[in-house]
Amino acid sequence: MDFLNKNKALIAVILPILVLVLIKSSGTNHFKSDAKKWAEPSFKRSNIVFGDQADSLPGEKLIINIGEGNYGNDILSANTLYLPADSILSKDNIRTIRNHNGPVLLFSSKATVAARVWMILSQMGYRNIYILTNDTDNELLKQKFRPDTLVRPEL
After folding, report:
1. Are 78 and 36 spatial neighbours (Cβ–Cβ below 8 Å)?
2. 87 vs 82, 83, 119, CA distance in Å?
3. Which one of 62, 83, 94, 125 is most buried, counting C-beta atoms within 10 A?
4. Contact present, 105 and 54 (Cβ < 8 Å)
5. Number of folded domains in the chain?
6. What's the pTM?
7. Does the residue 48 lie in any domain?
8. 133 Cβ contact list (under 8 Å, min separation 6)
9. Using one digit for the tens of pLDDT, what is the confidence trace for 90-130?
10. Which of 59, 36, 38 is nearest to 47 (CA)?
11. Is residue 24 part of a domain?
């Protein structure tokens, strides 16, 4: 009993944290609803903007050119950043994206790179992020995802 009296504050902090951890870890569907939520814009293709659609987006646009590709002079503006994909998450670049009021358009010569960056930024909580493409007949965007049938889930 003397131990409980001496450590009341410590127990008052640790016990609720322990209970919350047990409640959170007891569920079996930790990521199921989140994965569906994050994948939905990709399935609906609401995260993809073509050049003519970019003009109709409200607000000042920030175009992030990831890598070495060039979209074209008609869409590029003073608000174009040229960044390698591995520097998107640097503090300065994240601060620029967070402080920008308006749509952020991600462009890359490789559609998969822009899609990956879009997913990361979306999961970090950033909204109004789009993938800018000038290829309306992009074969990658037409393909339906097919899982590898050779992979055995029990392994």
Report:
1. no
2. 10, 7, 15
3. 62
4. yes
5. 1
6. 0.64
7. yes
8. 48, 49, 50, 107, 111, 114, 141
9. 999 999 999 999 999 999 888 889 988 998 898 888 889 99
10. 38
11. no
In a domain, 16, yes or no: no
What's the token pair of residue 37?
A: 């939520």
Contact predicate 122/38, CB 8 Å: yes
Domain extent, residue 84, equals 32-135
Tell me which amino acid residue 133 is.
T
Q: Among candidates 155, 84, 97, which has minimal Cα distance to 129? A: 97
* Backbone dihedral angles phi then psi of residue 50, each to the nearest 5 degrees: -95, 165
Q: Select from 71, 86, 68 the least CA-distant residue to 131.
A: 71
User: Contact 63/81 with Cβ under 8 angstroms?
Assistant: yes
**What's 39's domain CATH number?**
3.40.250.10
Residue 136's Cβ-side half-sphere holds a number of Cα atoms within 13 Å equal to: 4
Task: Answer whether 79's CB lies under 8 Å from 63's CB.
Answer: yes
79 assigned to some structural domain: yes
